[in-house]
Amino acid sequence: MKPTRRNFLQMASAGALIPSASLLPRLLHAQPVPTMVDQYFVFAYFSGGWDGLLAIDPRDPNVFTPGLSSSNGIQPAYDRLRGLTESDFLTSTAIDDMTFGPFIGTALADQAHRLTVLRGMTMEAVAHQVAIRHALTGVRPAGTAVRGSSVATLLAYLLGEDEPIPNLVSGSESFNLGHPLWASGLPASNIDDLYKALSPPDMALMDGQRDALEEFFAKQETRIHTSLQADVYGNRRIARSLVEKDLAEFFNLDSESDGMPDLRERFGIDSGLTGDGGYMALMAAQALTKGVSRCVTIKVASGLDSHQGTSWQNDHGPSMQEGFDSIAALAQYLEETPFGDTPGDNWLNHTNILCFSEFGRGALLNSNGGRDHNLINAMLMLGGGFKGGQVVGATTDLGMQAQPVDLETGELSASGELIGNNHVARTLLHLIGIEEDIGDFRAPPVSALLG
């Protein structure tokens, strides 16, 4: 039987899809779910606060020399990075004005025609927990308490009833405030955990044992007095339904059938070239193309909180590149995978990938030779809903500060706006045809990002 979200909703009326945060959501008040186009989303998280100078927002070290750093406030310091020569410092692309730093990876740089780079974003916090929750929800938290659902949760809610796990989350928090429980993020630490969660138990119960357990749980359900109890039993039914739908094999890395050996090679699993990000990207590819999920959040890079010089010089850039290489593999795979029955159509035409980190890092090295947290950030996007081959916004050549942008054209403009997480979240609503600010983001969309 083809897995559908509609089957889940029939059961979820008495319970909850497993939430990925301890915060249990409230039911949404009579908000209609529109019928949307075939759009899918991947949120690729680079954990720890990435250094834009090393990839997305570089500077020419021949112009921004060490002797000028005290006056212009920018210190690329590419010559301090492990294993690089001068020819590696900047990565050119086929797109004018789209130059990257040394750790974007050639696999993604070669896809520049697909990429939209958003530079000069402004964050509102540099504490990890606050900043990532702001990035995930598009709404600044009150302290550390979120004030909105994850954008992925909102999109999953709006995008229909066709997938068994509408919102899959791995390596990140997820939040649901006020939306149906089935839109909550289902958590999986990694692809192996997801495979195990979707697999039947190693030891099957005998019929008599199963019947006895079913009778026991049926009696317990008649004694439900709280919403928490209802959630527990609802989760049990949903979990069983997931196992019975035979989804596990899509995520069985040890399988020698169903194209898994080819996938392991394509995503750099066997070679180790993509690190943990390759596993995450493979999981996202399977979840999307096998009809399992509509929105997928994955952590493709970690260990980026590089305050110390040794960590920044040796590990920060390579960790970022593993993440970018994973995204390049995902995009290439989606482009080569047919979508539906229309000749020439492919999954990348219907998938929107956002690469983000909770904040950026300072343009000057600190006293330890690393980089500290910074409010100025950037984002990289690609896929069917975005206008590829362009750079929107820029940072200044004095201290790498944010600059206002004309949201319609993407050009710098004194009468424009500084772009933040809320602008991006609102843009994603427009991408699927929702013009109202139903996420309460209180910011207009960045129309220049959309194709």
Tags for this model:
451 residues, globular, 12 helices, eight-stranded mixed β-sheet, Alkaline Phosphatase, subunit A, 11% strand, disordered N terminus, two-stranded antiparallel sheet, single chain, alpha/beta
Walk me through the structure:
This protein has 451 residues and is of the alpha/beta class. It has one domain (5-192, 258-449): Alkaline Phosphatase, subunit A (3-Layer(aba) Sandwich), CATH 3.40.720. It contains 12 helices and 10 strands. The chain has helices at 5-12, 69-72, 106-109, 128-137, 151-158, 191-198, 207-221, 227-244, 260-266, 275-289, 309-336, 421-431; strands spanning 40-46, 115-122, 167-170, 186-187, 295-301, 351-356, 360-361, 373-374, 376-383, 390-392. It has an 8-stranded mixed β-sheet, with helices on both faces. Strands 7-8 form a two-stranded antiparallel sheet. α10 packs parallel to α11 (309-336). It is globular, with a radius of gyration of 23 Å. Mean pLDDT is 89; it is low at 1-33.
